[in-house]
Amino acid sequence: MRHAARRAAAALLSPPTLSSPSSAPLSLPVPSSCNSAPLLRRPQSLRARAPEAGLTRTPHERVPVPSSCARDRHFDDARGVLDERPKRSAAAWTAVIAGCARAGRHSDGMGAFAEMLAEGGAAPNAFVLAAVLRCCSGLGDVESGKRIHGWLLRNGVHLDRVLCNAVLDMYAKCGDCERAKRAFRAMAEVDAVSWNIVISACLQNGDVLGSVQLFDESPVRDTSSWNTIISGLMRNGCAAKALDRLYHMARAGVEFNHYTYSTALALAGMLSLLDLGRQLHGRVLTAALETDAFVRSSLMDMYCKCGSMNAAVLIFDRWSHLTGDMKFAWSTMVTGYVQNGREEEAFEFFRLMLRQGVAADQFTLTSAVAACANAGMVEQGRMFDIAPTKNVALWTSMLCSYASHGKGRMAIELFNRMIAEKIKPNEVTLVGVLSACSHGRLVSEGEHFFKLMQEEYGIVPSIEHYNCMVDLYGRAGLLDKANNFINANKIKHESIVWKTLLSACRVHKDMEHAKLASESLIQLEQCDAGSYVMLSNMYATHSKWRDTSKLRSLMRERGVRKQPGQSWIHLKNIVHTFVAGDTAHPRSSEIYTCLEKLMERLKELGYTSRFDLVAHDVEEEQRETALRFHSEKLAMAFGIISTPSGTPLRIFKNLRICVDCHEAIKYVSRATDREIVVRDLYRFHHFKDARCSCE
Fold it and tell me: d(Cα 499, Cα 494) in Å, to the nearest integer?
């Protein structure tokens, strides 16, 4: 019944259903990129070999010489042989056109097909038509594909599965999912290839539900079918569904091939499922596929994304003993170290890569620049200047590095260089520029770039761009202007802008706007722990202990918990982590002794503790003790006792740096004659000689 219904549908399918072809004979325009003149020349060497090569075979013979020429990509030779014949057969045309399709010379294939039709001596057979449809797919030329499909239907050409799948594939690859589905439903016979094509078309079009329904309906599910649905679900952001299908595939006993393993490993990395990744690695070893470059790359990437850098290094070392291109392996390792917050190791790996004579591509350079940015090594980022070619990602990465380090003028200068070199900025580039203006309090420049991005580059502002402008006005103390900007641009429903405004209120001690921002956040039910704590600290600053107590009670009622502050420092490839009042470190007694001495020295230099920041109505001495042993101070003291005098220190914190710690570290940089870089949740702070880059 099902086959009969499909035959009936095929018979009833009129040309306008899938296309609107005219009744004129099939004719296709020669693509503008196709220049057939060179193809008409026949090399002398081939002419001399013609008799022995079999060029005198009759046209009906199955495999003419042009076929072997085309397969070997000797297209000039193939056309030369074709043009030498007084009467060109369908088989000869098939060899040239199919060869073009196989080799990716789609424009040449379309041009040859147009010639064949114009000559009129040989009618296109199923092989020619399938090849031409592949050329349409390669060019994304759905209009020509529709004309060919319409011609097939009008002329009653028998559509076998190969030709039907070629039509189906053409619509799918040209992005016409609806026509692909209708052509699929009209097919009298379908195979696994047919199902895979239409499922892939749905996934490409974002129709996840439709693709899953088709997959479940399919009576033939081979390895390729499972690979198609799993990888497609991943591309559409449905990682959990993809994982479920992977487990079903394993339980069904379907054999995994190298593409299955690569896809599954990418899924494990995407979801940070190290145990799954290890199980897959075991199966890879059993299947003897670890030497496959595709699988090996996926293994390294999975371990990097799961944070298991030691395992990734082991695979990298084994790879280095094999032959083949190592560029991707180096790039994966550099990126992996950056993703895992091990920027100094990423940069060391990058330098080792260059010493080994491996050329850095744009992707690796971008990762290396990001490593320098995240680690606070701005000067090292000047590798950037030696890059032979710079794409927008590399420019943007360097520009954002300057922005996060408070070097607004340098970021703007870099942006101007980028424009002078005819590199068009994208949305992320403009976020970096506006952020640079914000951190540098460059209000007029920020307003200029916000206008420029819309009028010159046609970039529609996203919430990231709007938030940069709110931050720009907030940092400059223009809180009324920031509030007006929020209202004028109809972004009152975006919690991030109110959090940004609240942060500015803390800096400028503006309780009026702080109440407005916090009330807006509470209405939006987006008042997170950080916002509550910020407002609580503002109340404490103004000695409003009753308001502070009420707010803390409200936090407890709503189950809002403050994220514990943590600071860490990398020394000799070991990460040392601290929390406030921490005594777990083996050198804690030395750390506290160092801090006690430092605080006495800082007071001599003019430092006073910010008691107003302690959100408790307690005695002054108790509040000073509460401030003295914050996590960033402990990490700094450990760095001081663990490194030679004058060594720069790089400290990281998971939250915004405490205002008192910020003030103290400024004085420490002068007292110890050190540069101290603190990377908090929002930016880098470069402390030197009692000054900070954030001003």
Answer: 9
Report the domain count for the chain.
Answer: 2
Spatial CA neighbour of 207 closest among 180, 186, 225 = 180
Residues 592 and 682 in one domain: yes
Is the separation of the CB atoms in 679 and 341 below 8 Å? no
**Alpha carbon separation from 154 to 151, 168, 213, 331, 379 (Å, rounded):** 5, 18, 32, 54, 69
Give the pair of three-digit tokens for residue 241.
């569904």
323-to-262, 292, 318, 686 alpha-carbon distances in Å: 20, 11, 11, 45
CB contact at 8 A, 646 and 593: no
Amino acid at 460: V
Cβ–Cβ < 8 Å for 102, 70: yes
β-pairing verdict for 566-571 and 649-653: antiparallel
Among 82-96, 126-140, 270-284, 568-582, which range has the highest average pLDDT?
A: 270-284
Residue 361 lies in a domain: no
Determine, yes or no, domain membership for 487.
yes
Mean of pLDDT values over 193-207: 89
Measured in degrees and rounded to the nearest 5, phi and psi for residue 684 equal: -95, 140
In a domain, 649, yes or no: yes
Most confident of 14-23, 230-239, 684-693: 230-239
What are phi and psi for residue 501, nearest 5 degrees?
-65, -40
Q: Are 271 and 237 in contact (CB under 8 A)?
A: no
3-state SS, 563-598, equals CCCEEEEEECCEEEEEECCCCCCCCHHHHHHHHHHH
Please give the Cα distance from 660 to 667 (Å, whole number): 11
Parent domain of 621: 566-692
Identify whether residues 532 and 613 lie together within a single domain: no
Last residue of a domain, one of 562, 581, 610: 562
Give the C-alpha separation, 397 to 404, whole Å: 11
Alpha helices in 387-510 (DSSP H): 392-404, 408-420, 427-439, 443-455, 463-475, 479-488, 495-508
636-685-682-427 Cα dihedral, nearest 10 degrees: -150
Examine residue 172 and state whether it is found in any structural domain, yes or no.
Answer: no
Q: Is 653 helix (H, G, I), strand (E, B) or coil?
A: strand
Assign 536 a pLDDT band (cuts: 50, 70, 90).
Answer: confident
Q: How far apart are CA 371 and CA 401, in angstroms?
A: 10
- Indicate the residue among 515, 533, 562 that finishes a domain: 562
Dist. CA 601–CA 298, nearest whole Å: 54
Polymer length in residues for the chain: 695
* Residue 22 pLDDT exceeds 70: no
Query: 485: domain CATH number?
Result: 1.25.40
Orientation of helix 2-12 relative to helix 177-186, angle to 10°: 120
Angle at 382 between CA 377 and CA 383, to 5 degrees: 105
Q: How large is the angle between the packed helices 588-605 and 659-672, nearest 10 degrees?
A: 80
Helices (H) and strands (E) in the chain, counts: 36, 6
| Exposed/middle/buried for residue 695 (C-beta within 10 Å: 0-12, 13-18, 19+) | exposed
Q: Using an 8 Å Cβ cutoff, are 266 and 301 in contact? A: yes
Name the residue among 228, 230, 227, 265 with its Cα closest to residue 244. 230
Bridge partner residues of 691 (DSSP): 688
Mean pLDDT of 279-295: 92
544 lies in the same domain as 530: yes
